[in-house]
């Protein structure tokens, strides 16, 4: 469990630097020290284009909680920005799924049809 | 010193909630756990309008380091957003000074002429 957390953490940090290299201004909220307000893992902004990213490091399809989806939708509503679920499949790529394509919290092969890649960002 | 840090921290947290109440989506970077990339203390976004905020809790005029100013300017360049120095004077209000009005890092009474208040945000 600790191992998965560390790998997920490392992947997330790599994504931050990847976005920075692409010219984005990037900010990351660590797990600890969270304020009691909904916030995605990463905010990246490039020339007024903002993307809010929730990172998931998972080898298999997964389900997001209703609460987490609602928090992200609240963020989307306030900021009026793109909110993406970044699914990192171990030893494979990142897939960025716009939150509007996620139904009932299910993230699976079907959802990947609407995924963006890092080159699209 | 610890006391000042705590007061500054509390003030910063209050500002986060103030912005949230004004309808902003807000994210805060804690001091610890920073990624090795320039990042302001707070990012607030409301309907595509983004402000990046560096908080300073000081009873007297102060000077910001060249490095910190440059980091914030790099952020401004990438994100193309407003970057504000939020000066909280103890037992008084917050003053939000757009970074372009800060010369040689000096934040003082003179700079306050160009400051915004919370109502302007």
Walk me through this protein's architecture.
Two copies of one chain form a homodimer. Chain A is an alpha+beta fold. The first copy, chain A, has three helices and seven strands. Chain A has helices at 2-21, 66-79, 109-112, and strands at 25-28, 42-46, 49-57, 62-63, 82-88, 94-98, 106-107. In chain A, the strands form two sheets. Chain A has a five-stranded mixed β-sheet with strand order 1-2-3-5-6. In chain A, strands 4-7 form a two-stranded antiparallel ribbon. The N and C termini of chain A lie far apart (31 Å). The model of chain A has no long low-confidence stretch (mean pLDDT 90). Chain A binds chain B through residues 13, 16-17, 20, 23-30, 32-33, 35, 37, 39-40, 43, 45-48, 50, 52, 74-75, 78-81, and chain B through 13, 16-17, 20, 23-30, 32-33, 35, 37, 39-40, 43, 45-48, 50, 52, 74-75, 78-81.
């Amino acid at each position: 469990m600790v191992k998965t957390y560390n790998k997920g953490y490392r992947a997330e940090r790599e994504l931050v630097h990847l976005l920075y290299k692409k010219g984005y201004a990037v900010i990351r909220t660590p797990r600890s020290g969270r304020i009691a307000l909904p916030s995605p893992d990463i905010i990246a902004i490039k020339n007024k284009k903002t993307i809010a990213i929730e990172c998931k490091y998972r080898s298999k399809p997964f389900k997001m909680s209703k609460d987490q989806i609602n928090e992200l939708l609240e963020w989307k509503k306030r900021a009026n920005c793109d909110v993406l679920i970044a699914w990192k499949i171990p030893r494979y790529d990142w897939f960025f799924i716009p939150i509007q394509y996620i139904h009932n919290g299910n993230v699976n092969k079907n959802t990947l049809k609407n995924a963006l890649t890092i080159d699209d960002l």
